[in-house]
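Amino acid chain
________________
===
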Amino acid sequence: QVQLVESGGGLVQPGGSLRLSCAASGSIFSINNMGWYRQAPGKQRGFVARIFSSGNTHYEGSVRGRFTISRDNAKNTVYLQMNSLEPEDTAVYYCMMKIFNSTIWGDYWGQGTQVTVSS
């Protein structure tokens, strides 16, 4: 079994910062992609950022330059540093990892953490 546990969400004023973390545990042999997605009320879940095992990163256009994704392979953890937050960033944020458990590759998701940007 593999579990992803997120932390770091909360309420922040516009222009503020938050750092999300997501740690994987369980039967893990290797991790390829790590990423973050978000779902705002009334909208579908959408891509935010991704980091490959090579260290290469991709960002959704509206967060590029404000958000930074990073990973700690020794800790099986992915981070999302969010700066200059805007009300439009309000959403539930989910982490996702592509994990090989010594038998098969699978996409695993965290439970979600709420980020609210409001004055």
Notes: The radius of gyration is 14 Å.
